[in-house]
User: Fold this.
Amino acid sequence: MSNDPLVVFTPSGKRGHFAKGTPVLTAARQLGVDLDSVCGGRGICSKCQVSPGYGQFSKHGVTVAQDALSEWNSVEQRYQDKRGLIEGRRLGCQAQIMGDVVIDVPAESQVHKQVVRKRAEARDIVLNPPTKLFYVEVLEPDMHDPSGDLERLCDALRDQWELENVKADLQILQTLQPALRKGAWKVTVAVHLGDDENPPRIMHLWPGFYEGSLYGVAVDLGSTTIAAHLCDLQTGEVVASSGVMNPQIRFGEDLMSRVSYSMMNEGGAAEMTRAVRAGMNTMFDEISAEGGIDKGLIVDAVFVCNPVMHHLFLGIDPFELGQAPFALATSNALRLRAMDLDLNIHPSARVYLLPCIAGHVGADAAAVALSEAPDKSDDLVLVVDVGTNAEILLGNRDKVLACSSPTGPAFEGAQISSGQRAAPGAIERVEIDPVTKIARFKVIGSDLWSDDPAFEAEIGASGVTGICGSGIIEMVAEMRVHGIVDAPGLIGTAEQTGSANVFADGRTNSYLVYDGTADGGPRITVTNRDIREIQMAKAALYSGARLLMDKFGVDKVDRVVLAGAFGAHISPKHAMILGMIPDAPLDKVTSAGNAAGTGARIALLNTSSRAEIEETVRNIHKIETAIEPRFQEHFVNASAIPNAVEPFPILNSIVTLPTETFNTGGDSSGGTRRRRRR
Assistant:
């Protein structure tokens, strides 16, 4: 056991022991962590910025002391004085490892930038935004009429547009009189039309006739990524889409790790709140720049998120969500202002958070319900929003059931030996030759397969860098189909599998996917631990779906909808081979893309949909997997690939899965003798 300090890098999950005094950049390079550096570690380029975490990290089994890194040095101070560093950041080339430490590599410090796949899906949405533009002519002041300019503006809105009881914030009063006089008493006014809790309110005004537009953002605040769509409130058009990694990842990849961090570290919840709001504001800067607009014109925002993200975003300690009965501070929809949440958009911008369904089924699941409308379906539909915390809906016109399942980050490439986020160079599609047992693949950024003669030249800029979530799913499924992995999840030996790419790796075996070491690239493998991570994730997902089917009293569903940014890239066939989803005709397994983001856009652009989803959520029946005895039973069965007891007749009509098992107690003959006990 090494006495050297343990270093854990997030979001990759890569870890190792290093001697005291080792620069963080050196440790990152030795572990294959994606940390940029242009200047060769001289403290000039600042590309290697990292964010160390301090306190107790139960997920990683470490407690990080304040002196885990060397003291701030003169090189960092010089850079801070000249260009400025974000608070808490260090330069990886300067900070040295002095004790156990957890280090987050922010997105902007990664060489291979993540492709945030939460794109806006094409959808017809009834346009009825909560904030609209109104052109009015205001009466000039008169010695005989002592009313103020604001009062006469409100009278004009009432008389010309039938807007009653309109209010205004202080910042409107501060700009009102110059605007009225510059516009010769004609102004264009942006008015939030109000709701059950708030009267109509003036958001902004321009002298004369304003020919521009207003904007809103629909934000999907996920455990791993934050994605937003910038929408024109006049036309409904998606002007720009952007996304960033959720900076809370350094406190834990999964939700319960973050709840644990808040429990174990005083002020931990507030620290995570500051981090996620800062990440949000970074994204607003990016999306407004991409859309070519002033972010001060963003006057509406809708947020969807799971319950833990919901509480941490609002500045509520998620302690109660970490223990039964998993009580939310509130499950109702919330109507707030941007300034309440420290968001750097229009100061009076209105913020709407969709309602949560239950303690572990959040506003993101409500957004999926709004987008996919299982309550309006004639057939029985299973909607699975695949992510670090999967939300699952099952229903039809009769009723809708919902639950969440803690799948963890493995589906997104985390905790996988060669895993990575979706970025150029990441393997995303896989096929294994049934004769040679060699894998060919596609990477993000190229349409060519790896056995194409032009492949190496086309991917020259990115290279082959690792395996992302969709790639690892296809990889494990292909290994199962071609007899490299058995049903219990064990990789056989080279002799058992007939594959020269299988090699002994400690007490188990691993499979070589790609070896780029001759050209300075990575050696990409799939280990037996990787298989276990995928087994645990897919078992949690399937068990949640199967539990809802039990509650519904059915053994099959009519159709399956894979939602979520990641779900859009999953091959239905490979998902079924793994046993991620129930057996169903492949043509009845479809992708809804980022359904939570689509639901957020619907709520942003059609204010009447907000009352609709609030009513829908009240009628959804919530199932808490943590207290259901059969969940564990389903989980154990679903740990096999595809399942230990479920027959999967439709899948078996499509593919024939090998029946051999490899637990032979060291016998390389391919038999199925069990390991001897001493």
